[in-house]
Amino acid sequence: MRFGVMHRNTFLDAPRLITPTLAWRAHPHIHFAGQLSGTEGYTEAIASGLVAALAVYAQINGQNLTELPAHSLFGALLAYASDPATQPYQPMHVNYGLLEPLAEPLRNRKRRYQQYAARADQAIRTYRESNPELDWLPEVDRSFLLTDDRGADQPNEILAGETSAEEVSTAETNADSVSAAETNAEAL
After folding, report:
1. Are residues 88 and 109 in the same domain?
2. Residue span of the structural domain in which 180 resides
3. Residues 93 and 61 grouped into a single domain
4. CA angle at 133 for the pair 142 and 40, rounded to the nearest 5°
């Protein structure tokens, strides 16, 4: 047990003690969640509780829950938090610095985050398909997840193979230019 930096929260030395499914390495039938598991934040605590519950559910039914994909933010946090090479360890929130960089770097932060979201969405879909024991979980309506401020589902179209990333980038640049021109015209 160790104390956290800011709030002096008690937490486990996660990289040496727990697995990516939040099981205790020494006693895999015991799982941890919340700040004790070495994650920081309310949402992260809720997510860790869900992962621990799913892992226990899988064990009770004679199955193994595979670790979340590292292309998802929480999967990346769990991979970092449970990696014995992580030293020194302090709990943290999910953050984009934990994700593997995109194949094609994007300077525009909004577009970069949309691409991270599209990649994570695909990774979670693949994860669910490869874990049929999770079929009882409800399917999430993703229509709101990957839209830009104009409501265009461009990253979803990329996933479906309908539009290339280059076409999306060009369309967004053109739409931004039109929007800027409209704003300038209104100002006159």
Report:
1. no
2. 101-188
3. yes
4. 60
Each residue's pLDDT tens digit, 46-93: 999 999 999 998 899 888 888 999 999 999 999 999 999 999 888 899
Helix (H) or strand (E) holding 10: strand 10-11
**Separation CA 124–CA 102 (nearest Å):** 17
Residue whose token pair is 């991979």: 79
R_g over Cα of the chain: 20
Query: Read out DSSP for 150-178?
Result: T---HHHHHHTTSS-HHHHHHHHHHHHHH
For 16-52, the DSSP string reads HHB-TTSBBSSSTT-B--GGGGTB-SHHHHHHHHHHH
For 159, residues 6+ apart whose C-beta sits below 8 A from its C-beta are 118, 121, 122
C-alpha–C-alpha distance, residues 21 and 81, integer Å: 11
> pLDDT by residue (tens digit) across 110-147?
999 999 999 999 999 999 888 887 777 777 666 655 54
